[in-house]
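If I may wish for something, please walk me through the protein I am sending here so I can picture the backbone:
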Amino acid sequence: MRKLTSRPETHFDVVVAGGGAGGVGAALGAAQAGARVLLVEKYGFLGGAATTSNVLAYCGFFQQGSEPIKAVGGVADLVLEELKILGLNCDPYRSPTTLNWIILLEPEAVKIALDRVLKAHGIYVLLHTRVAAASRTAERLEAVTLAGMDGRQRVVGEGFVDATGDANLSLVAGLPCRTGNDMGLFQAVTGPIRIGGRDKSVPIDRAAIIAGFEEYNKTGDYPTARPDGGIYTEVPRTGDMWWMMFDYELRDLSSESFTEAEQFSRAAAFDYVEVLRKHVPGFENAYLLQTGPQIGIRESRHPAARYELTKEDLLTGRQRADGVARAAWPIEDHAVPGMPVYQSIGGNGYADIPLDCLRAKGIDNLYFAGRTIGSDSGAYASVRVMGTAFATGEAAGRAAAGRG
């Protein structure tokens, strides 16, 4: 077992950029295929949206329907088993708002579970580290330059996986990227929050929330785009309220736009909790417990893949011999902030994701996982979720290790 305090090697079989569900899945898939694996993550912890953005639900593990039918297993089950050891039951939970099956999360448990699982598989992890540059020949990546707390270092790899969500590795490698959908528009960003101090003996009154925001939206500084009271549940173990009420239209991928979205989201969170305190029984002593370390990004860049999964593939539930993962989460389009539109997966309730969705167009040893896989705007609204990301990550890791 490598010690975290030792200097990293300069050569790995597989280098994975990004430590969210896709990156963790890729690292585990590659390690199980016998590869020496390096995973780099810009934050001081792993987990992706679950730990960076308060998205406290794994979506995509189960198909829609009256009973939960599992669509994702493999290395993702290793994570779920570790979460169970830490006190989460990880049973499928049917959202009363959307009727979709999810797995409820607690972020601190996710952080430590991922640390433990990756360590158990001998994966070298560098946190507080970004991919700053890449060197390549015409058709292959040769090495990446990592920027971390101790400066820059060059690491050579045989295979690479871009699981950054924002296609950062693909961008520095010079791969063409589409921004947003075909018209350059993005799915709305979101700002889920955690709320403490609620009287848990009083059921949450959705009608009161709706009425309170009808009043707030008349004069409030940050009117919500969600007229239905939002999506909320209780955080496992803590009992805090988890609430998704803030959606925001992202104009572009500039730092200025993200700064505005981040600051608006935090300011809105304080206002929204005050609405609960004034209008909703049981929240008289409520307080804002946590915003995410960053806002929840649903969409940014799409690097060029050898095949783009299509909306039609999902609506027909297309199954194929070259499938390496299943897309089971419904098409969840957030093109209009606060007004998600759902469309169910057709056929048997899932569609196969082929390996070519995970292969970079023009770079033979670069693979995609999670939000970076090839998909049109309709299919992307389904495959971007974390459960599916574990599956595409595992497949990408195995392929990058030469076991695809």
Summary: Residues 11-183+299-400 form a domain with the FAD/NAD(P)-binding domain fold (CATH 3.50.50.60). The mean pLDDT is 95. The chain has ten helices and 22 strands.
